[in-house]
Amino acid sequence: MASLKSLIISYITLLSLFHFEFSNADVKGGYWSPDNGLDASDIDSTLFTHLFCAFANLNLDTYQLTIPSSECETFPQTIRQKNSAVMAILSIGGGDAKSSDFNNMASQPSSRKAFIDSSISLAKDNGYDGLDLDWEQQTNIDEMNNMATLLNEWRAAIKAQAPNLILTAALRFTPNISEGVSFPADAISANLDWVNVMAYDFYAPGWVQPPYVTEPHAALFDPTGNDVSGSSGIAAWIKAGVPANKLVLGVPFYGHAWQLVDPNNNGILAPATNFNDTLVKDGTPSYTEIKDFISQNDATVEYDSSYVTNYCYSGTTWVAFDDTQAIATKVAYAKSNALNGYFAWQINQDLDWALSKQASQTWGS
Fold first, then answer.
1. Residue tagged active-site, from 71, 73, 136, 153
2. Which ranges of the chain have pLDDT less than 70?
3. What is the residue range of 53's domain?
4. What is the pLDDT of residues 88-119, one digit of tens each?
5. 170: CATH
């Protein structure tokens, strides 16, 4: 009996060690969704260690999760055809999901359990290696407290039902929302394998206040001193208590387009309008669309090392984006600051895998 007990303890210990090594591996991540024009079978998964399928949907009646398409059901098997070692993670929610819906789910024990159990079942039944919570747009302390409870119970359920399952979350670039409202750093650090820090969408014509000026939406640094940047967000997360090796830096494979007031005044912080459909609808062109715009309009391309951003302009159209130089600098920053890696939103927006290749090569093996 003592021998059997020793074997069981050793097995549990081995599983725990495996999970630790498994979840703390370097992250070369990217998000994909079935409606973005890129088939899962066409993903060059050799460039990634972790690929996120976006998004599982929350049923507001049962608080259980559903997978949006058959491609998501077969996503893990499909991406492993080119890279048997790549990890598949099912992401839940997204920017279009209401924070109030997730808060309602997380506020009651029964709905939390329905959500948690269904998430683990979906992951196990479809061959996923992990789950990713993309709960966005939080504004109040009630949401933060309920998130902490959810994460505590979710991790406990994973330990009991599927101990090797990765658990992550995509969260705001900084843990600070407003005065007295911040993300539950202790619960995040204790229960998540890592945080995907969404270091983008700081500025855009559709949601900034006047006076309107061209601003990079995903700058690594902020020379203006406003502390709105990827590096300031990372520093804030670490100060809040989430260690660097549990932070993964987000990079965008898209830009934000602005309309210049004067085409001859075309640098960063140049006067602009709040016209939101510049270049493409909603002013958020993909990297592919930006490169086409540059080629078709002989646009001028600049790189600003003080922000770590690229931008281009032609006529009154001005676009902030990350080209290979900005991507390389950001990934090098993540590695030199002992972060756990990087991820891209989203990989279908790349052009011939140029940004993905640059990121992977910069990080190294």
1. 136
2. 1-24
3. 8-252+323-363
4. 999 999 999 999 999 999 999 999 999 999 99
5. 3.20.20.80
